[in-house]
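Milestone 3.1: sequence recovery, worked example.
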């Protein structure tokens, strides 16, 4: 009886995870976050557009070959800014990123291209050689992950100013199909143990 109760609990968890996954469409993970920073005479006004694409749905340079979620961001530095953007990052769970890159042929074209890095708990983009001056925008900043999206945080900095805002980022859980498969495997192990 104890094993049936455990199996019932696992089935409930499986149902909840799969039900929530079907309600969380990728469209919910696209939008714009504004960063309006001021310190004395330094002003940094930046809009970050973000979108998450399901595996195989990104129409640009898919750095995963169609196997991962693609997280895409593009930075627009406002004309009211008087400092340059020097760094942008998105916080991620450790080890959740497979590749980090930029895409010059997607989104608003003609953007400033930064250096892209995969840090332990963030995807980072540094505008070292090409400045993201006021009135300019970046290329599309990408990373790929097997993890489905959730709302997380990103940072923008420049001219001694730094701000944090809500952006789409990988969740701690792998994609819902993987969770469902793992749950079914656990159920079969419990059932096998009974006999």
């Amino acid at each position: 009886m104890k094993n049936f109760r455990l199996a019932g609990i696992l089935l409930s968890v499986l149902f909840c995870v799969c039900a929530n996954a079907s309600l969380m469409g990728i469209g919910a993970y696209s939008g714009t976050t504004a960063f309006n920073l001021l310190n004395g005479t330094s002003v940094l006004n930046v809009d970050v557009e973000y979108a998450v694409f399901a595996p195989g749905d990104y129409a640009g340079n898919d750095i995963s070959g169609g196997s991962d979620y693609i997280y895409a961001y593009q930075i627009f530095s406002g004309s009211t800014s008087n400092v340059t953007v020097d760094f942008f990052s998105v916080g991620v769970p450790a080890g959740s990123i497979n590749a980090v890159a930029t895409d010059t042929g997607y989104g608003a074209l003609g953007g400033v291209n930064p250096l892209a890095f995969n840090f332990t708990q963030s995807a980072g983009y540094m505008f070292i050689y090409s400045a993201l001056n006021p009135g300019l925008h970046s290329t599309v900043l990408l990373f790929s992950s097997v993890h489905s999206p959730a709302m997380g945080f990103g940072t923008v900095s420049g001219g001694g100013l730094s701000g944090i805002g809500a952006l789409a980022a990988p969740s701690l859980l792998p994609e819902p199909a993987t969770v469902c498969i793992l749950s079914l495997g656990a159920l079969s192990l419990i059932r096998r143990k009974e006999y």
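The chain is about 20% helix and 45% strand. The chain has a mean pLDDT of 81.
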